Write a sequence for this structure.
């Protein structure tokens, strides 16, 4: 499954906070300010599991852990919180924990590959 980034909010990327909040194009204007908006070229079900790979253009990340609500929210709202760090004691229900622990370089038109 592939998505294209259509918008990056002015508050969406903070190098001090290694996470990205993704939404599909139904995100409200207030959410867009803090989010990366993605457009899915084709409808379909995504199931994220530990060990699979997410790519942002040519930057590959491995899924280390998936919160209990992440897949449902990703499929219903295009919404998930990508965390580039270790899973902590306070596991975020909508979180997907990725390695390496470095934010990807993104721009409008970047591709996200869920595979």
């Amino acid at each position: 499954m592939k998505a294209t980034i259509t918008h990056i909010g002015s508050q969406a990327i903070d190098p001090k906070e290694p996470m990205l909040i993704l939404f599909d194009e139904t995100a409200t204007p207030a959410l867009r300010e803090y989010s990366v908006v993605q457009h899915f070229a084709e409808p379909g079900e995504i199931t994220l599991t530990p060990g699979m790979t997410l790519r942002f253009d040519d930057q590959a990340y491995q899924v280390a852990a998936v919160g209990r609500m992440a897949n449902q929210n990703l499929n219903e709202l295009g919404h998930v919180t990508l965390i580039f760090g270790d899973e902590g004691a306070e596991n975020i229900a909508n979180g997907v924990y990725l390695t390496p622990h470095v934010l990807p370089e993104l721009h409008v038109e970047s591709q996200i590959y869920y595979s």
User: Anything to note?
Assistant: The mean pLDDT is 93.
